[in-house]
Design brief:
The chain is of the alpha/beta class and 306 residues long. 46% of the residues lie in helices and 10% in strands. It has a 4-stranded mixed sheet with strand order 3-4-5-6, sandwiched between helices. A two-stranded antiparallel sheet has the order 1-2. α2 crosses α4. About 4% of the residues have low confidence.
């Protein structure tokens, strides 16, 4: 398991004390050996796709540089400073953000600037137990935002009429690539009966196959085994082979078991959480409030010194 971010600071400095100038890839390899990280550990990635171990090594490099413990005498190559050797000479057992802020004014200034907002200055010392890199903080904050958005979306959908919900389902499926266009898809969803099917949509723009839909805008009621059993029966009655059951609520284990025992039928269950995630992914019922770009140095742009 990859250690927490601040656990990288001391090993980083110790590796830097082993030899002369090194690039970040060499440093990260040495740290991996020092920490006895497994191949599986080294494959771990952030949600952005960046390698977690390399990300933490890179931020440990930044923090050590801000504290004056290492320097960059050549492009993309680093070495320990006298201040870094002095710190290791104390026999220190752990390096934390608080320690760096308390002992190195340059790092304290960096920390304060990093945690400062437009209207309020956050006490950086409170982040002493921060165990993740800034990139991971962004991803965690993004997860929180998405979680809140999912709750808000579901609440908004549940307040609408069943007809609105059926149209929303059609629009979502069209945005996902089914049914051609909305007008074409809307025509086929007029199909309805009392047998557990709310509509039909083309699987593709040419209509080579059809997908039968059941949409339930429920607030608290869980979709149970009998509900799915009725849907399966309706599919069999019309000779269908594919179906989608969409609800704003949840599916019971009995309902999911019915799907596993449905034989050759291909049925997809979409609960409220998944529905909201698909709406966000395909921009149904949401708009972009603001966006951010996280950039890094393009090392390929800078030619190494001869």
């Amino acid at each position: 398991m990859i250690p927490s971010f601040q656990k990288y600071l001391l090993p980083f400095l110790e590796v830097m004390n082993e030899g002369s100038m090194m690039d970040i890839n060499t440093i990260s390899s040495k740290i991996a050996k020092k920490m006895k990280l497994s191949d599986q550990d080294l494959e771990d990635r952030l949600e952005s796709g960046q390698n977690r171990h390399l990300n933490r090594c890179s931020w440990a490099k930044t923090w050590c540089m801000k504290a004056g413990l290492i320097s960059r005498p050549q492009r993309a190559r680093f070495e320990i400073t006298d201040e870094g050797r002095k710190l290791l000479g104390t026999g220190i057992k752990e390096i934390t953000q608080k320690y760096l802020a308390d002992h190195y004014p340059s790092f304290a200034e960096f920390s304060q600037n990093r945690n400062q907002t437009k209207h309020n200055s956050v006490d950086f010392v409170k982040s002493d137990h921060e165990e993740v890199t800034p990139m991971e903080q962004i991803e965690r904050a993004y997860k929180d935002i998405i979680g809140n958005l999912i709750d808000d979306l579901l609440a908004a959908v549940k307040e609408q009429t069943p007809k609105f919900f059926e149209e929303l389902v059609v629009l979502l499926l069209v945005r996902m690539g089914y049914g051609g266009d909305f007008e074409d898809a809307a025509e086929v969803t007029q199909y309805s009966n009392d047998g557990g099917i709310d509509g039909i949509i083309k699987e593709d723009a040419l209509g080579l196959d059809k997908i039968y839909i059941q949409a339930k805008r429920w607030t608290d009621k869980c979709v149970g085994g009998p509900d799915i059993q009725q849907f399966i029966g309706a599919l069999i009655n019309v000779g269908a082979t594919k179906g989608i059951y969409i609800t704003t609520s949840t599916f019971s284990e009995a309902a999911r078991r019915q799907i596993r025992n449905s034989g050759s039928l291909k049925i997809v269950l979409i609960d409220g959480q998944e529905l909201a995630r698909l709406m966000i992914k395909h921009n149904v019922g949401v708009v972009v409030d603001r966006s951010f770009e996280v950039k890094r140095v393009d090392v390929g742009f800078f030619k190494p010194e001869e």
